[in-house]
Predict the structure.
Amino acid sequence: MTRPSLGQDYGCVVCHADMRRAFVEGVHAERGIVCADCHGGDPAALETLPAHSGDFIGAPGKRETVELCASCHSSPDLMRQYGLEAGQLAEFRTSRHGQLLEQGDLNAPSCSDCHDSHRIYPPGDARSRVYPTNIPGTCGSCHQDADMMAVYGASTDVIDRYLESAHSAQLFGKHNFAAPSCIGCHGAHSALPPRISEISNVCGHCHVLVQSAFESGPHGAAAARGVPFGCTDCHSNHGTEGTSPDAIQATCARCHAEGSEPAMLGADIESHILHASADLLRADSAIQQLVLDGRDVTDVRFRYQSALTEFSQLAQVQHSLDVQRLDDLTLRVSSISRDIRGAAEVSAERRWEHKLFLIPVWFLALAAIFLAWVKLRKVS
Amino acid sequence: MKASLDPSLLSIPRFLGLLYGRIDRSLSIEEAWEKAMRRRLPSYVGWRHAFGGITYFLFILLVVTGVLLTLYYRPTAQEAYRSTQYVATEVPMGWLVRDLHVWGANLIVLAVLAHMARVLFAGAYKPPRETSWFIGLLLLGVVLAFGATGHLLPWDQWAYWTTSEVLFALGQVPLFGHPAATLLAGGEVLSDATLNRFYTLHAILLPWLAFTLLMLHFTVVRRYGVAPPKGAARASDSEGVPFFPNHLLRSFIASVAVLALAISLAILFPRPVSGPADPLNVPGELTSTWVVVDVSLALVRYIGHWGFTVFLLLGLAMALLPFADRGAEYRLRRRPLVLALGVIFFAGFLIAWAVGARQSYEPTSATVRPGVHAEALPSSGAAAPSAEVAEPGVEADDPEPADDGGAPGGDQ
């Protein structure tokens, strides 16, 4: 069956041209969906009253919008052809947004609040409000509204803190779309803040090895016993940042008394990582000097990458608080760094040996000049 | 046999060559040799006239070291950098040959300018020696062209981006700038084509031009002699100090001193190498290894592309000087135009050199290219890229350091 198009003979566009302009940019128009499919009415009529007759529902309210969207998007049979999931409605009903809407709270968002009502782009379209780099702004449209959030006692600085986080730096600075935005931790349609006991699983969804190391250590064992402790106790939730190596001891001291065995362990870990970091920096300087000397640094850079790999493991292993493993890794980094610096020292030694040439050069030059000068004076 | 026992240098070819006698009779080698040995230079020729000879010596040094370098250098974008590395690190004494070539290129510019200054301020460009002056200016241009083309050949980041910057500035010069820059670069950006063109210029075209101009220069100098001071009469050929051995000894002393200086500079200040040329990565700073590049960078930064126009206009003024100053006045204070021009040219060069040697900045030519980003340099200032240190908290598959925002902790 031929689907009607939104041309001039489609009655709705006679009055609602602005909405047509928005609608035809979106993905629904590409799929042949027209106004009457959502709003009802008689698109063949050119007068208002007959056009708005029959099953015309007008602009649906928030709860009606959810039902309306779900009428297609909850049908696996219908969504299969587009490769789309069909569980959004079920997820939405579990979310805080869905629960509030169910209770009649019209502050809660419906589908069109995030996806727009007419200009609906696919999530992979950079113009979409749910494109990864646009999501903080979309969520922030409510979660940064002080008046709205005051009703729920929620803070309004979460977006600002997120924008200062390492995740935001990856997403916006490095265009690393594997980095999470709001929905990466809270879910999209099933949006809810994770419980404390769930946090390590949420973080571990990406930071798999770190989670594994954490759970194998005493912190993980404590969390398994029900102690409310997780990743955000050291790294914060929205303003998530990596702990600087020189701040590890201070972080441990937030819970462990100074001089206690856990605090000393924290100092030990900090020392290991600082040493390894310093070794890497020295190796890096040595490589730069080798390049300046004109040496081929292919092999050396390969070794440096190995040292970086070992150092990266330090970052994970430290979460297990296993000092023995940290020792091993630090020693390996140190060994590779020493080898690289050794190559730079050999190069420096050769440069020094070159300087010894100055002795015979100037001896011969001065002797030649002296003899020529004597001869010149004689003939003059 | 009796002739072969003659202790002069020609005894060797006489002893070895049975045909030497016939060759000598047709070419008069003996006569030419003895005439050269008897040649005299006026008594007013002194050490201040040594700059021309020093320049020639440095040119010979550059030719010899350049030929040695061509034995190993590969003029392609894929191999240029590695061949340069090979010469500098693997070839026996290759490091010395290469650094002598670099420092020779620096010293020859200074020697040429010193020679030019001596000629300018002494009024030695006045008729009948204006032809020698014109040829000398052309030779200055050839020396600058040699250095400009040779600077790119190592094909490292500094060479690439410095040349890119200078060509970009040249391209802004009105009328002929853009066509000239495009012709030199072989396109809109530097590429393998540019390297080929620069190598062809450096190793083939410019040497022929230089030898031709040098021969003309020497011929004209021999024809009109060294200019007498303050317009005095030219001494006759039979008066003065013998070239052999007096002036030859002076030339020898000057050459040995310059050679020792060049070797010392090459050993104490070897030309560093940055990373291989990367058209998609702009180094945080440009480091120059040639005097004229320092001057160019200073001109480009503070005057913009008009710096080249100013330089060309000054060169034109220099070329027109013999037409403007044809009188018999040789005292400098009575030639204010010459004094002003000389001070502007030479002092300006020295000031631009001093300024350019101290500055560093990102090439502006990079800003017009999409997809080019600046790499962050470590504090040592070296332009060589290397893996960044990952800080704790970063996964192994995330090589970039995480932001360090200070004290960690919950904000729940």
